[in-house]
Design a protein that fits this description.
The complex is a heterodimer of chains A (472) and B (562). Chain A is mainly alpha-helical and 472 residues long. Helices cover 76% and strands 0% of the residues of chain A. Chain A is built from 20 helices and no strands. Chain A has helices spanning 2-22, 31-36, 43-54, 57-70, 79-97, 104-112, 115-148, 152-168, 170-200, 203-216, 231-246, 249-257, 261-292, 304-312, 318-352, 359-382, 388-392, 395-412, 417-437, 449-461. In chain A, helix 3 (43-54) packs across helix 9 (170-200). Chain B is 54% helix and 20% strand. Chain B has 5 domains: 5-155, Beta-Lactamase; 209-243; 247-328, Beta-Lactamase; 334-408, Signal transduction histidine kinase, dimerisation/phosphotransfer (DHp) domain (Helix Hairpins), CATH 1.10.287; 416-561, Histidine kinase-like ATPase, C-terminal domain (Heat Shock Protein 90, 2-Layer Sandwich). A 5-stranded antiparallel sheet of chain B has the order 3-2-1-5-4. In chain B, strands 7-6-10-9-8 form a 5-stranded antiparallel sheet. Chain B has a 5-stranded mixed sheet with strand order 12-14-15-17-16, with helices on one face. Chain B has helices at 5-64, 69-82, 108-111, 150-194, 211-246, 264-272, 274-281, 330-376, 381-408, 420-437, 455-471, 503-506, 524-534; strands at residues 87-89, 95-97, 100-102, 121-130, 135-144, 250-255, 261-262, 292-300, 303-314, 321-328, 416-419, 440-444, 450-453, 477-486, 489-496, 538-544, 548-556. Classes of the chains: A mainly alpha (472), B alpha+beta (562). At the A-B interface, helix 1 and helix 8 of A face helix 4 of B.
Chain lengths: 472, 562
């Protein structure tokens, strides 16, 4: 019976996406329209797109599982670390907005007058996002195969179709479908938390139970772990996730696509409120699930939330909860696919090509590249190679070391091209070395990002570099 | 856009694509349902038949005395207990199922109290008579699309339909978008052309060979040709406008029921002359197709102005239209008047000179005879006085004749560079006495101009005009001598604040012997005119009755003076 319910919800979702995704098709005659929605998004679409992009399948699937497993104290290395990145985004939004660029790597061309930097950042983004899109597809595949009890391969093929379709219409389509996805994520997580509380026996039972457990000294309700929160773990999480988020081009693109710099700033501030609300709901789901049944058997924490929805909740609305995970996966994947394709075409291919190309042609190439990258991601997602999933945890770390200083420093200091190039290459090299030299099991405490971000910073502010005369 | 071509392609294609998917899905569901139903019915029938068979066997054993009827019936009831949903009605009409006894009225499926079959739930009761014992077996069954194993069986079918549906819809949307995009681009291009924006070419590949390519290329060629022709038309239009606006003739196009169109000259002339504007604005479309000509004249700035006006209806248009032209012919008219006046004066001069000659000879004879008679006749004092009066009158007639002859004979002029101020100053001094007698104040303004004129002639001219002016102010007034410049000519103005003259009088004032004063000879202004013409000058007069008269005499100047 549940499968029919899920099938029905899924069908409605499919129809909505097909209709909403169509929207962007007519507005993609110019590059600025295709990549940045004409830099004309008003506050609500910007907020919706920002939040929908923020929550990936990893957040919605992984975080309730992590809380279920590790208790409240995971907040420090997850939600808090991510949210710290928002402060950085608030900081740069107005300055970044003044740059009349189409993609984030183009910022490095404009600011440092360096084609090398543009191409290099383009390569970093193409590769990093390819890995990340694979993770999104995988997340979607897990949920849909759980929901509909179909093979994983069938469900990843479905996400491929959705992601491809919503990305074809450029940022207009992505933003439009993101509004729908935002409603689903917000509604799904809040409904999920309400259902979980209801399943426990209502808010009163839930809170009194929490109080009893807290007084009893249940470790998973403690805000800090029993053994204390190691400084280096916190620092690693902050640098790998917080700085990664702060330098993440997905959000920089949302800043650039806003109608004005005031709207860009408001978008980040308003989104922060929604993000806190959704994180709170996710924490309630995680803790509540544990209270309903502390003995769920799982191989990966990603399986916990779908399991809770499917087997522990008794409501016909649970289809929305699962579809909200689908929404999170697709809204993040299409945004990343668009950045990946735009980086490849606009920031790698075009600068290396001598001839100038017209907008329509570039958009046409981008669509082909989206198709190729999505297909490639799909093929990898069919059978993800050993290590790709753990390695994808390093995506934000690499983005942090390669982009943070050239981006933030570029906006707030007068450091020259030489410093930016040294910082991005030195930081990335240091990261790769640290990745291999620091043993895997130590990574959560001494993350490779720690030494490499330090090196990237030193190289960026190295006095031997010249001062950029052009910068005002 | 609700009526966009994309939607017109998309909707039918979506129907074409989705309908077969739905039909295949529905047929597949129906087939599965039917096969499931038949299977279920067959299974139930099989169960009932097998019980019937057992009853037959048990009944045979009961007949043979191998077992009691009671045991046989108990065994059958055990078998019935094992089959959930199976009911049996015994020979007394009691119902039994799953170890329980039922009354007929308790069983909804039996007495029709249960909900009837519908589209989603189908209900049936399969029965089997156990004739040996008079029992009857009932197996009520329900079938639905969403119950039993049907969803499991159909899940993949449904999933494949959704899959294919999504792929088909996405392809249809992308296909219709790509198909309609160039048409939309062409439409946008046409719209831009309609709005007058030629800037951007349609976003269509130039090497397209299909109908859209042909359409796009043809449209662009058409627009280019149109642009070329528009350019030519614009050129001709500009040329026509330049011609129309360069001519000195005012042109007005009157269109019935619409605003009139004026060329620049018309506008300028109307701006300068409000009376002309009033008359032109009053004009309406004329019904006659013949060309009509008129001369308009009226006073403008105390000067009479003349316009030659032509108007005619333009044929061959839906609305009545007339074209009106008007030309300022004041100068031409003045020239004509001057020529006419000169010719009239010349004729009069010739006639007067002829008459004077004819009179002078007999007059000389009369005078000689009179003198002879005075000498020969011894006349008394009174007679002598009379004859002397005769001689005086003869002399007077002779003087008049001399004057007439003088007027008719071209005078020698000896032009030299004269300072106007000096002449004016000396004349004012000379005439002050006479002027003060008549209560007239003389003014003169000095500008340091010099003119090329015969000094005596200039004095004569100004003297005559001053006397004329003083005479025109019987009640006294002011007479002003001033000068001005127009191009390379200098003009002297003699203005009085006297009685002024009517237009009819202005036409005659230069005629010889025309005078309004009894004591005048009527030759003063004729002589002035003659002298002015003789010194290559021009004379003009403006007068308003009751306000005064201004004579302006214009002479050439020397180049060195400039």
């Amino acid at each position: 019976m549940d499968e029919l319910l899920y099938l029905g919800v899924f069908l409605i979702y499919t129809i909505a996406i097909l209709i909403l995704g169509k929207h962007g098709f007519d507005k993609t005659d110019e590059l600025r329209g295709y990549f940045l929605a004409g830099r004309n998004l008003s506050l609500f679409p910007s907020v919706a797109s920002f939040c929908a992009t923020w929550f990936s399948a990893a957040s919605l699937l992984g975080l309730p599982g992590l809380i279920y497993e590790g208790g409240v104290s995971v907040i420090w290395t997850t939600a808090v670390a991510w949210l710290l990145g928002i402060i950085g985004l608030l900081f740069i939004s107005s300055k970044l907005y003044t740059y009349n660029v189409v993609t984030v790597p183009e910022f490095f061309l404009v600011r440092y007058d360096s084609k090398l930097l543009q191409v290099w950042i383009g390569i970093i983004l193409s590769v990093s996002y390819l890995l990340y899109v694979v993770i999104q597809i995988r997340g979607f595949g897990i949920v849909v195969s759980e929901m509909l009890e179909v093979p994983y391969i069938v469900s990843v093929f479905l996400v491929y179709l959705f992601v491809l379709y919503t990305t074809f219409g450029g940022l207009h389509s992505v933003a439009r479908t993101d509004i729908f996805h935002f409603y689903l994520i917000l509604g799904g997580t809040i409904l999920g938390s309400l259902f979980v509380v209801n399943e426990i026996g209502g808010l009163e039972v839930f809170t009194s139970d929490l109080v009893v457990r807290a007084t009893r000294g249940d470790s998973y309700l403690a805000l800090f772990p029993e053994e204390g929160l190691p400084f280096w773990t916190l620092l690693s999480a902050f640098f790998a996730l917080g700085i990664g988020v702060a330098a993440n081009p997905q959000y920089a693109v949302r800043i650039l696509s806003a109608r004005s710099k005031q709207i860009a700033w408001k978008m980040i501030a308003t989104s922060a409120i929604f993000l806190v609300l959704i994180y709170f709901a996710i924490f309630v789901i995680g803790i509540g699930s544990r209270m309903i049944n502390p003995g769920v058997v799982f191989e990966s924490t990603d399986e916990i939330y779908p399991h809770v929805i499917s087997y522990l909740l008794q409501t016909p609305w649970k289809g929305i909860l699962l579809i909200s995970v689908v929404a999170a996966a697709i809204s993040t994947a299409n945004s990343q696919l668009l950045i990946m394709a735009s980086s490849f075409v606009y920031d790698i291919t075009l600068p290396l090509r001598k001839k100038k190309s017209v907008d329509q042609q570039v958009i046409s190439w981008t669509r082909w590249v989206i198709f190729m990258f999505a297909t490639f991601s799909l093929l990898i997602a069919f059978q993800p190679p050993e290590g790709i999933v753990p390695f994808s945890g390093h995506v934000w770390g690499i983005i942090a070391v390669s982009m943070f200083f050239p981006l933030y420093g570029g906006l707030y200091t007068a450091r020259s091209k030489q410093n930016a190039v040294l910082s991005t290459f030195g930081g990335t090299l240091a990261y790769v070395l640290a990745f291999f030299l620091i043993p895997d099991h130590v990574h959560p405490v001494y993350h490779p990002v720690l030494p490499s971000i330090l090196i990237a910073g030193i190289l960026y502010f190295w006095k031997g570099g010249t001062h950029d005369e052009k910068f005002n | 856009m609700r009526n966009s071509i994309e939607r017109k392609i998309l909707v039918p294609f979506l129907i074409i694509v989705l309908l077969p998917s739905f039909i295949i899905g529905a047929v597949s569901m129906w087939a599965s349902y039917q096969s499931e139903k038949q299977l279920k019915e067959a299974t139930v029938s099989e169960t009932l038949t097998s019980i019937d068979r057992y009853v037959g066997i048990f009944d045979e054993r009961v007949q043979n005395g191998d077992m009691s009827e009671r045991d046989a019936k108990s065994l059958v009831k055990v078998m019935i207990d094992e089959k959930v949903g199976l009911y049996v009605e015994d020979e007394e009409g009691n119902f039994y199922s799953g170890g329980k006894d039922y009354q007929a009225e308790e069983l909804e499926w039996l007495n029709g109290n249960s909900e009837p079959s519908s589209f989603v739930i189908e209900k049936a009761v399969i029965t089997e008579e156990l004739e040996q014992w008079g029992w009857k077996l009932y197996f009520p069954i329900e079938f639905s699309f969403y119950s039993g194993s049907l969803p499991d069986i159909q899940k993949y079918t449904l999933l494949i339909i959704i899959f294919m549906g999504v792929i088909a819809v996405q392809f249809t949307i992308i296909f219709s978008y790509h198909l309609s995009k160039p048409i939309k681009n062409l439409a946008a291009y046409c719209k831009r052309i309609a709005m007058g924006d030629r800037g951007k070419e349609p976003d269509i590949k130039t090497n397209r060979k299909d109908e859209i390519g042909v359409l796009s290329n043809s449209l662009q060629d058409m627009v280019q040709t149109l642009d070329k022709r528009n350019g030519q038309i614009e050129k001709i239009k500009k040329l026509n406008e330049t011609i129309l606006n360069s001519v000195h003739v005012g042109m007005v196009l009157l269109v019935e029921g619409s605003d009139s169109v004026y060329n620049e000259a018309a506008q300028r002339m109307m701006d300068d002359d409000p009376s002309l504007e009033k008359r032109v604005r009053r004009l309406t479309v004329h019904e006659t197709t013949k060309r009509k000509e008129e001369i308009w004249n009226h006073k403008h700035n105390e000067e009479k102005v003349y316009y030659a006006v032509n108007y005619r209806v333009i044929k061959g248009t839906e609305r009545n239209r007339s074209i009106i032209t008007f030309e300022d012919i004041t100068n031409r008219r003045k020239l004509e008047q001057r020529v006419e006046r000169m010719s009239r004066l010349a004729s009069l001069g010739e006639m007067a000179s002829g008459i004077a000659h004819e009179i002078r000879n007999p007059l000389a004879g009369i005078r000689t005879t009179t003198q002879l008679l005075i000498r020969r006749l011894e006349l008394g004092k009174d007679e002598l006085a009379l004859t002397e009066n005769m001689l005086i009158d003869i002399d007077r007639v002779n003087k008049i004749i001399t004057n007439i002859l003088q007027f008719s004979r071209p005078l020698d002029s000896n032009p030299s560079f004269i300072k106007v101020d000096e002449t004016m100053r000396s004349l004012v001094l000379l005439m002050e006495g006479m002027a003060s007698e008549k209560n007239v104040t003389l003014h003169h303004s000095e500008n340091g101009y010099g003119i090329l004129v015969d000094r005596d002639h200039l004095r004569q001219i100004l003297l005559n005009l001053i006397i004329n002016g003083i005479n025109a102010m019987p009640e006294g007034g002011e007479l002003t001598l001033s000068s001005g410049t127009t191009g390379d000519k200098r003009t002297i103005y003699v203005s009085d604040t006297g009685v002024g003259m009517e237009d009819s009088m202005l036409d005659k004032i230069f005629d010889p012997f025309y005078t309004t004063r009894s004591e005048g000879t009527g030759l003063g202004l004729s002589i002035v005119h003659q002298l002015v013409v003789q010194n290559n000058g021009e004379i003009d007069v403006r007068s308003t009755p009751g306000k005064g008269t201004t004579f302006s005499i214009t002479f050439p100047t020397r180049k060195e003076e400039e």
